[in-house]
Amino acid sequence: MRIERFTKATAVATVLALAACGGGGNETASSGGGSSGGSSGVSGGGSALVDLGLSPQANADAGSSYTNAAPDIRISYYFLPHPPAGVGSLRDAVAYLDADGDGDTDVFMATGDYLLIGETGSFLTFNTGADIFAWQTATPQAFGGALPPAEHARKSITADFNSDGLADIFVFDHGFDAPPFPGAAPKLILQTAPGTFSWTRMPDVGFHHGGAAADIDHDGDIDIFVGGSDPFFYVNDGAAGFTKATNRFDGSMGKVFSAELIDVDQDGFVDLLLGAHERDGDRTAIYWGSSTGAYSVASRTLIPAAAPYGAVLDFDAEDLDGDGDRDLVLNRTRDGDDGPGLGFYMGRTVQVLLNSGNRQFSDVTATHVDKPTGEPGFGGTDWFPWLRVQDIDADGDLDLFPDNLASGTSAEATGLVYRNDGSGHFTLEWVDVGLR
Ligand SMILES: [Ca+2]
Ligand SMILES: [Ca+2]
Ligand SMILES: [Ca+2]
Ligand SMILES: [Ca+2]
């Protein structure tokens, strides 16, 4: 199978601001990009929020699922070795981790099938050392003899949830993807010793489409945001015992299909980036972390809508233009049906916003990002589950590229790279790497 190898992104330096913004500021909208001025689609009110009186952290992103989602390899999901039977066909919920303690990057995939009633097995593929991946017959034993189940897994994340130094996995599974959307349970998969895992279903069933993990309450363990029709936090007790909490964010957030936890403004408090379907009135926004340890609509920055690509699939926040602050990249697809070939979850765009300070961002997509007119197959239906922001050409700046090296069903995603010129201008290049 084909693999690309490169160095991990270097995180921008963390700068601590002495004065923590504890919320209460007016909502600010970033400029440009044709933000729709319609109703917010969110309702007021919400549960009483905690005020934990936190101090800023030197590195609020330490151990977060976002930090762990920049592996040193890029692979084809579809060419991964997997068990001969029993696993599903879905390939969105990928996780990268050292799953056997040998220091290289292994790949976990939670699966399921589209419109499946029931569950399939997930799989774990081991890097044998030279970036050659192999299914190992011992893998079911790695999971105690039973592969972690999935109905329609949408996102897997890695973090050390039980604070033992080994990477664990959490799977967001939204279940059957049609009315009445009965939902599914998230799966917690703990690496109890190198190469040995134990998994459990979490008790809260729902349409869990996305989420992220970071230490939101500064007590040294990694907490989880669970996005869906009814989002909530799992607050960690330090040993991967989780308590469902709804008092850590404002109830006006509405539904959430995509989420990341990143300290975007580098003030020592991790921020919550949320998106769903803009066509339905869902606002794409950054909810600013603060000393309270809670997130509120009263302290958020809106990200301009990007119709017709109103379904936000993925967020990244890295320094794209080399000025030391974190800029934004959003991976999007269509959030409604605009006709034949232009349907729901068809096509894609990459939205880029540069940080202009004071929690404001300028949408430079129109001027800084190549239009994909020269891309073979453009106008087709592909969308990227995940976009990565790393220096793929080793020239010192951060480039944009789909995580998957090939879609398996189309050549569109194959070898696609938005190459940075160092100033945050991206040139689209399509490299035929021969995967079909
Ligand atoms: Ca915590
Ligand atoms: Ca922050
Ligand atoms: Ca920047
Ligand atoms: Ca580069």
From TrEMBL:
Record field: transmembrane: none
Pfam families: FG-GAP_3
Protein name: VCBS repeat-containing protein
Cited SUPFAM superfamilies: Integrin alpha N-terminal domain (SSF69318)
Species the sequence originates in: Rubrivivax albus
Signal sequence region: 1-19
UniProt keyword list: Signal
